[in-house]
Design brief:
With about 325 residues, the chain is α/β, with parallel strands linked by helices. The chain is built from twelve helices and twelve strands. Helices cover about 35% and strands about 15% of the residues. A seven-stranded parallel β-sheet has the order 8-7-6-9-10-11-12. Strands 2-1-3-4-5 form a five-stranded parallel β-sheet. Helix 10 links the parallel strand 11 and strand 12. The two termini are about 20 Å apart. The structure holds 2-keto-D-gluconic acid. Belongs to the D-isomer specific 2-hydroxyacid dehydrogenase family.
Length: about 325
């Protein structure tokens, strides 16, 4: 008999098909209220990086042993509630780092050089009537990175290729040569581009607020490939509308898939639908890692990609 796996998030077809082939998949929601008696037999819950896995949902699943997240971010998972029950949490780090860093550079170049507006300019026939306005130079500019983890460090490596002057802020300094700022506002005041690659959660909520945006200033550009919750979206829309900030490029939003209506009206902002890790190769690698965690669990082997808290808590082997 196939084991029961609860799927509460939208996942790529290539992964969903493999889950259905190997397990008895129960499709559920983040509330879990619809599960009924099926809840009793769920051993593994599969979520994605945006999913909310609350204490209440965990409480509805008495046999739950592992929460498998398709994504590196797991700020929506109540890890403390999981650990109280000895439930391990896994995610998909490393395999998506290159894509997210590539996309941060894409957004930075895209907004600075006004690529989407230039495309529209050509398509709408405006070229015949004049020249496209000059844009902002990226090479050699000053770049501030908020969160120098795996993805932030990969962005820095790419930015070095653009001769950018790099500085960063985060929870603690890293053993790197880039200047460290304990205050994000002070970092913002010294750079041209501020890239957010920090994880979400209570610690970073609205870290980028009006004061930080004003420190970045009317020549500054904000990029966010971390989590939407890190940026106060209403404050950002206001700063952009009032031209207190030159531009912004966002792949993540506070209330996905909804975007602050103020942002939709502006042309000094570039908006993409949380797609930084969405290449075929990376989504395949993320899917493989999700399957590897499930297979290891059901084979009684150590879980390959535990979140740091589960690893430190000794929840690596669910044998
Ligand atoms: C999403 C992400 O998980 O890895 C993360 O933390 O934000 C993304 O890769 C992905 O969109 C799946 O929903």
């Amino acid at each position: 008999m196939k084991s029961n796996v609860l799927k509460i998030a939208r996942l790529p077809d290539m992964l969903t098909e493999r889950l259905y082939a190997d397990y008895q998949v129960v499709e559920g929601s983040e509330s879990g209220t619809e599960l009924g008696p099926a809840a009793a037999d769920i051993l593994v819950l599969v979520a994605n990086g945006e999913s909310r896995v609350s204490r209440e949902l965990i409480g509805r699943l008495p046999a739950l042993d592992v929460i498998v997240v398709f994504g590196v971010g797991y700020d929506g998972v109540d890890v403390a509630a999981a650990h109280e029950r000895g439930i391990a949490v896994t995610h998909t780090p490393d395999v998506l780092t290159d894509d997210v860093a590539d996309f941060a550079m894409t957004l930075m170049l895209g907004i600075a050089r006004r690529v989407t507006l230039a495309d529209r300019f050509v398509r709408e026939g405006a070229w015949a009537h004049g020249s496209f306005p000059f844009t902002r130079k990226v090479s050699g500019a000053r770049l501030g990175i908020v969160g120098l983890g795996r993805i932030g460090a990969a962005i820095a490596r790419r930015a070095e290729g653009f001769d950018m002057q790099i500085a960063y802020c985060g929870r603690r300094p890293h053993p790197v040569d880039y200047p460290y700022f304990a205050s994000v506002r002070e970092l913002a005041a010294t750079v041209d581009f501020l890239v957010v690659s920090a994880s979400g959660g209570a610690d970073t909520r609205h870290l980028i607020d009006t004061a930080v945006l004003d420190a970045l200033g009317p020549e500054g550009i904000l990029i966010n490939v971390g989590r939407g919750s890190v940026v106060d979206e209403a404050a950002l829309a206001k700063a952009l509308a009032e031209k207190r900030l030159l531009g912004a490029a966002l792949d993540v939003f506070e209330n996905e898939p909804h975007v602050h209506p103020g942002l939709l009206e502006l042309d000094n902002v570039l908006l993409t639908p949380h797609m930084a890790s969405a290449t075929w190769a990376t989504r395949r690698a993320m899917s493989d890692l999700v399957m590897a965690n499930l297979q290891a669990y059901f084979a009684g082997q150590p879980l390959p990609s535990l979140v740091p808290e589960s690893r430190d808590g000794g929840l690596g082997s669910k044998v």
